[in-house]
Amino acid sequence: MTNAAWTSAMKRDLMNGQRKTALTVGVLFVLTLVFAIPGVIAYGPVLNDPRYVLGPGAGPSVSVGAFFEILTVIANIATAMVLFPLLRRQSETLALSYVAARFVEGALIVVGMLSALAVETLRQNGASADPGSLLVASQSLVAIHDWTFLLGPGFMSGLGNGLLIGYLMYRSGLLSRRLAVFGIIGGPLVMASGIAILFGVIELGSTAQGLATILEIVWEIGILGVYLIFRGFQAGAAASLLSRSRDTTTADTTTVGPSSIAPSTVTGVA
Known about the structure:
By secondary structure, the chain is mainly α. It is 82% helix and 0% strand. It contains 10 helices and no strands. Helix 5 (131-172) runs antiparallel to helix 6. The two termini are 43 Å apart.
């Protein structure tokens, strides 16, 4: 095979690889929404009815919600694992930070899920307990779920999916800068709304919080999801990152290779 043919084959393989990566990332971001919405709906009775814990029998909706939240956590972590090998070539520190943010977000989601399941356990096994105590315990567990939802899918998502990925996409050129700006701006807005709720400036679920999440929703679902599925990364951007990494590795190897040994050292050994 000639050098030109070999180079052409390598470029084709790189393009196919980056297209598969973009498609996988896009599908995973869409799946996070597909899994998250049924989970939120299924949790409706336990989160919105203060007397839910006093009801008779089992409430299957909580188990359904927990199942979809587990799928959401898996999809969240998968996005980080798929993107990390590519993003680390732009900045390994920021890429690792993104992975850490996704794991923290997933952990907070799991804590919220466990609190909802605990309410369900009280409903099933607390028939002989004092109703007032059950109500207090139930409301405390629901409050834990609300805070984990705020700090997980709220604050940490704005940091990871918004600010960190937005900046990495902006610097690497994997997405055009006009698209990456949605994440760079949308992420901090989500984080700011979470801090405002934390300090009582605005209320959880308020119109102000909803407005602050618009850019982040467009970024995560419209751009990182749908856009990557149908359009992928910018042509040549991923290949450029890969070649940059190979050039760095080659330079390091040359520096420490046998040719870098000083002649005087060889003479001295002789």
